[in-house]
Design a protein that fits this description.
mainly alpha
Length: about 180
């Protein structure tokens, strides 16, 4: 079990990066795919896994980490507002990617457009994770006391378990285009 919240978040980041690498490989292979139905389904499934994991991660931050930072760190609201605004940009990027994937599945056309929107999505997610690694995690390590970090980590783990249970039960779907 990770000792502090930043270890927990870094593990989530690593899992997302591994999925992004797989998505990148699928996007590279997409223009050459012969069995299009199978390739499109792999792409859709992988994009869904990334979306679920990313949304769970963002929910943990919004519901648990950001309020803890706001309660314990003076002057952090501007940084968190910027991160929230960036998350809105990410949602728009994700929506555009999903729309292109759904269009591809329906029509079988515009593989290059899907690859382009997928690369934009990957770039945004990676940028988000880099921003957290460079800005948010150092802030957490420096400004939250160890007890608060343990409490935040525990709450995030519990929320993650609830979210995973919802996904497993099929109660939460991937974003619709």
């Amino acid at each position: 079990m990770p000792r502090c919240i930043t270890d927990y978040l870094k593990q989530e980041h690593e899992a997302l990066l591994q999925l992004l690498n797989k998505l990148n490989n699928e996007l590279r292979a997409l223009p050459l795919a012969r069995d299009t139905a199978e390739a499109f389904e792999r792409l859709r499934k992988l994009a869904g896994q990334i979306s679920q994991r990313l949304h769970a991660h963002l929910e943990e931050e919004e519901k648990i980490l950001y309020p803890a930072l706001e309660a314990h760190v003076q002057g952090v609201s501007t940084t968190l507002d910027r991160m929230r605004l960036d998350n809105d940009t990410g949602e728009a990027t994700e929506k555009a990617f999903w729309q292109s994937v759904e269009h591809l599945i329906e029509s079988g056309q515009n593989r290059e457009g899907v690859a382009h929107s997928g690369r934009c999505y990957i770039q945004w997610v990676r940028g988000h994770l880099l921003n957290e690694n460079g800005r948010l995690l150092p802030l957490v390590e420096r400004r939250l006391d160890p007890q608060t970090q343990r409490e935040v980590r525990r709450a995030m783990e519990e929320l993650c378990q609830e979210t995973d249970a919802h996904f497993a039960a099929g109660l939460t779907d991937v974003p619709e285009a």
